[in-house]
Design goal:
By secondary structure, the chain is mainly alpha-helical. It has nine helices and no strands. The radius of gyration is 19 Å and the shape is globular.
């Protein structure tokens, strides 16, 4: 994976082009509309910070990376060609800057280590029938049902701070590439196309990483509830 400059497109031939509404927003931003820019910042800044925390050691650095990202946006507006959505372009800048900062702080792995099908060994996974099929109309790839042993677990326990902490710890303990994908897909609600475009990975890689991440998180939650 290579670092993308603020005004360039990541995988410009792939993904959704900027919509008519985004084109209007882009025109307002280029015209110096402060209200439009502040609205853009309010909409995405918290998500930028959350994503940056995957790559840098603390929230203060994540805030710095997010601020640098907004500066990159302002400097690159005139070069943005609308061949991807504004959201994809924005988060591509963030990811590149966060990874660069993370490497500088010795807190990130090399780009080439994100996913290597020849180097990464096969891992035991949860049975495939526990997940909904890829063509499911509402929740493709999500968990199909809880184990039978969970039927007697009160809903309050599943939603408790302790259970949520188990999930958070499981996500935090994932390999970086899996943590990136599950955070974007299942925590921030991104589509598969958005994740592929921002992280510059293929659909097959994204699907494998997500499946492995979900399997590990589910095993951790099973261990907590069954134990």
């Amino acid at each position: 994976m290579t670092t993308t400059q603020p005004g360039t497109q990541l995988n410009p031939a792939a993904g959704r082009r900027a919509s008519a509404g985004e084109q209007d927003l882009l025109a307002a931003l280029r015209g110096g509309d402060e209200a439009a820019f502040l609205g853009f910042v309010r909409q995405y800044h918290p998500a930028l910070v959350r994503l940056a925390t995957l790559y840098v050691r603390d929230r203060a650095l994540a805030e710095e990376v997010a601020q640098e990202t907004w500066l990159g946006v302002l400097r690159g507006l005139d070069r943005f060609e609308g061949r991807s959505s504004l959201k994809t372009w924005l988060f591509s800048i963030l990811v590149n800057r966060a990874k660069t900062r993370g490497q500088r702080e010795s807190r990130s792995i090399p780009f080439s280590a994100l996913w290597n099908p020849d180097a990464e060994p096969a891992e035991p996974a949860v049975e495939p029938d526990r997940f909904l099929p890829p063509d499911h109309p509402d929740w493709p790839g999500h968990w199909a049902a809880f184990p039978k042993s969970w039927d007697q677990v009160p809903e309050a326990v599943l939603l408790s701070q302790e259970a949520l902490a188990v999930i958070e710890m499981a996500v935090a303990g994932l390999p970086p590439s899996q943590r990136e994908v599950i955070t974007l897909r299942d925590i921030q609600g991104w589509t598969a196309d958005e994740v592929c475009n921002v992280l510059n990975i293929g659909e097959t890689n994204q699907r494998v990483l997500l499946h492995r991440a979900r399997s590990k998180v589910r095993r951790a939650l099973e261990g907590y509830l069954d134990g």
